[in-house]
Design a protein that fits this description.
Blueprint: H1 4-7, E1 20-27, E2 40-47, E3 56-61, H2 69-83, E4 88-97, E5 102-106, H3 119-132, E6 140-142, E7 165-167, H4 168-177, H5 181-188, H6 193-201, H7 219-230, H8 237-247, E8 265-278, E9 285-300, E10 303-313, H9 316-336
Antiparallel strand pairs: 1-2, 2-3, 4-5, 4-10, 6-7, 8-9, 9-10
Length: 340
Amino acid sequence: MILSGLFGAALSYCILKYGLHIETTNAQTDANNIMPNENCQMTIGRLAGYEHIKPLLLVEPECESGALEQIKEHAKQLIEEKKQSGKLITASIYVKAISKNMWTSVNVDERYHPASLNKVPILITFMRMNEKHSGLLDQKYTYIKGSLVFPKQYYPSKELQDGQSYSVRELLKYMICYSDNAATTLLWNHMDFKEYANTFTNLGLQKPSFKFDEMELSVHEYCNFFKILYNATYLSRESSEFCFSLLTHTDFNEGLVKQLPAQVMVAHKFGECNYDIVNKAGEKPIGTLNELHDAGIVYLGDKAYYVTIMTKGTDTQFLASVISELSATIYSDINKMNLL
């Protein structure tokens, strides 16, 4: 996570131009049982801020699908079982069968610190900037070790080399594929904060805060970043495809992908953080809380489903195992029930 003290004042310079315009319409059940036994309103998200057009971003049923009830129940059972260890405090899931527009969730209202999940909206922001200023991806910046401040990582990977220059394209790869905080911070220092804030508010989300205890998202809210990439409704098709060329090569294999078959392609990003739990008076720490999340898209042939899993607990490695087991359970249920 980007340190709150480093960037606390940055957001004050953001001037928001666009917003998400929400429409609702009634959706009837159809003969293919896309939403069996449900009369559900559809939320239609359109990009506001234009004079003559309102580009379509998202079309979502407001209610969960009964057809996915087995996924929901199995996930709830697994979460309750893992909580008995004392190492898991809570967990949330969001799953959507894309082609049938059906979704389900567990603990959907629980909010979490996104940590490195925030690197996906940063990626989207830079691609948006590149569309407006062609050639930005080839701009180079030099990394000087010690000149940047960023948090340590529980799951370290490849890192930038001191004194070496990197293009924005390369920095985005380090940020997404290797979750490198040095690359993220270097990008951050050259980011358009107005565009970054728009990436959130365009989806109907609160404008982002850079104070650690204020930056929170639910599993449902976070998945919207993957939806606009998959549908190519916010960036161009070429830019969206570039984003997935990175997200399908992230080298974190302890969460969503660990128990899935090796041939299954997954585009995903993980996030991790830990922080002190203070007493009621807020005077001194009484313990440490860890959060670990993994979110993305699982591809099965020409079909796919969204999955976001967020967790809180006392042991990061245990949280990784919870995510991998939940992911495997969801994958198994979707295959057995032929839900795609």
